[in-house]
Amino acid sequence: MRKRKSDLQQSIAQLQKEADELKAQRKATPRHIAYKDLPEAARFDRLSTQSKHLVDTIKMVAYRAETAMVQIVRQKMTRHDDARSLLRAIYSTEIDLIHDPQAKTLTIRLHPLANAASDIAVRHLCAEINATETLFPGTDLRLIYELVSAQSP
C-alpha cells in the first residue's frame, strides 16, 4: 500500500512538473503574430489604402442613409429607440418585386411586420421614399415601395 501511495505521489509530482513547464511555455508564446511572421500560405491580401477609403466611404454613406430613414420612421413611432431595430426587421423581411415596363416602374412590396404599429411606420417610410421618385440605377424604372395588403390607417 505504501509503495502504491509513493508511486502515485511520484506520478503526481511528475505531472505537476510537466504542467508547470507547459504553463511557462504558454506564457513565453506571443499572443499576437505579426503579419510579416506569418507563413506565406497563411498570409492574406490587405486592401490597398485607396480601396479601404472607398469601402469606408460606402459604409459612411450607408450609415447616413440609415440614419435618415431612422428619422423618418421615428415620426410615427412612440418608442424612438426601436427605430433602428425596425429598420433591421425591414431589411430582413421578404419582398415581392413587380416590374411594369409599360408604366416604367419597379414596385417593391414589403410583407407585413410583427405588429400594426411597425406597419404604420413602414407605410410612412414608403411614402417618404416614393415622394423622391427615385429611379433604379442604370434604368428608367421608378421605384415604388409599398406594403403587401397595405391599408391606410
Description:
With 153 residues, this protein is mainly α. The protein has a domain of 99 residues. Helix content is 51%, strand content 12%. The chain has a three-stranded mixed beta sheet with strand order 1-2-3. Helix 2 packs across helix 4. The longest helix is centred in the first third of the chain and has 27 residues. The mean pLDDT is 89.
List the helices and strands and how they pair.
Elements: H1 2-28, H2 49-74, H3 83-92, E1 95-100, E2 105-110, H4 116-130, E3 142-147
Parallel strand pairs: 2-3
Antiparallel strand pairs: 1-2
Helix pairs in contact: 2-4
Q: What gyration radius follows from the Cα positions, in whole Å? A: 30 Å
Q: Report mean pLDDT, rounded to a whole number.
A: 89
β-strand percent reads 5-15%
Q: Termini distance?
A: 87 Å
Major beta sheet, strand line-up: 1-2-3
Shape verdict:
elongated
The low-pLDDT segments are none
Number of helical segments? Answer: 4
- Profile the largest sheet: 3 strands, mixed
- Portion of residues within helices: 40-55%
Number of strands: 3
- Specify the structural class: mainly alpha
Encode the helix/strand succession as letters.
HHHEEHE
